[in-house]
Amino acid sequence: MPGKIMNNGELLVSKMPDVLHAARQIRQGELTSVALVTACLQRIKTHNPTLNAFGDVYDIAALQEAGDCDRELAQGRLRGPLHGVPFGIKDLFSTQGLRTTKGSLTSLDYVPESDAPIIARLKAAGAIILGKTATTEFGWTGSSVSRVFGHGRNPWNHALTSGGSSSGSAISVAARMVPAALGSDGGGSVRIPGAFCGIFALKGSLGRIPTWPWSATEMLSHAGPLTRTVRDSALLFDILSGPDARDHQALPEKGESYLARCDVPLGKVRVRFSPTLFNTPVAPVIASLVAQAVAKIADGLPVALQVGNLDWPNPFDTFNTLWTGGRGIAYGAALVDKSGQLDPGFATLISRAAELDLAAYLQALKQRAAFASQVHALFDEVDFLLTPTLPILPFAADRHTPAGQPAGNSGVEWARWTPFTWPFNLSGNPAATVPCGFTADGLPVGLQVIGRRYADGEVLQFCAALEALMPWDNRQPPGVA
Length: 481
Prior knowledge:
The strands form three sheets. Strands 3-5-4-8-10-9-14-15-13-11-12 form an eleven-stranded mixed beta sheet, with helices on both faces. By secondary structure, it is α/β, with parallel strands linked by helices. The chain has helices at about 20-25, 35-50, 60-75, 115-125, 165-175, 190-195, 230-240, 260, 285-300, 315-335, 345-355, 360-380, 425, 455-470; strands spanning about 5, 10-15, 55, 85-90, 130-135, 155, 155-160, 180-185, 200-205, 220-225, 270-275, 305, 385-390, 430-440, 445-450.
């Protein structure tokens, strides 16, 4: 058992329970919500000063709500499938009555009046918001640099970046501070830190989980959980998915249980493995570990495997225009008098956005459509595409880009070292990162699994088969246990 209650009511943690175990133990009376919240708070107190995963932590309110959950359960009342389970929330999501800094010194006093749909659904399922997790400024970069929270640090090596922009959420899950956390992904922001921190993260199909308030990069923006296991993610997608009138892109009800889908044996599937995309060099240790994982998949699962790089043109300029234009113009007008408070990189993005014109933006939308059509055409021939999640290992925590990357003048230089993630924001396909091995230095490496549009359940089912074949949750970062 991941945890159990001692006679004095304290939680003895041999392994912080994941979401499914925590929820089941609480329902069955083997674990109290108060004990679990207390254990999470203790882990935050121990590890957060080093790792910088959390900003605001609601210790008093969370313990009070946990006590309410325990009393309600004793009276036979269950709030929902997440009754009494604590979560971390990326500090980009609107939380009614709770400060939402968006990772910016310009927004330290902002308190939303309404919950985002994903927050309202989490609460309705009985979850407890334990605190707000770190993010880069307005989620603009894939690093973990932050002037609000302190630079996010990788639980496997504290000198290195955790990746971002859902940095705090990934750190908090990997370091067992919480059973799970919520994040968002506009170019890789759950998959980048998921890969660097050695956890599971799925960017669903565009619109699978509704997003609100509106974003100027709405065609790229996704919301979803970061978890230790595939089934935890499937459960949370079951709870968080579905239409919301505030998000015009939100998809209809999916018509199946993703969690149940994970228990269905995998049938014969067609898999394409592309060792790289756009001729990007991949670190040899990553290439080796990913290739070994693919070989294990081919040997252990019912797959028809094709291996070969794809000849897609690199859509970097397309992504650069849409991301820089959307983020830079939308925020630039509001922050015109606050440039001195901004991360210099984000200030550069805003200045670059001012150079864009409408014709260039419309051309980028046209190019996005053309690239997405190529991606979708591939899935007429295969069921899943596999790539490395990232071509590089984590770099220094105080940098936005790896030390060897040449200087550039785009608004999204971080996208040059994440060329395998953001293309599937352009296309809207579901894409997950799965831990597939560890380097000799103990750093996790991610394998990316991409599926056809709207086939989120199929991606989760395939990833559940991968987890059974090469489990990863039995390994924890040093100093966490």
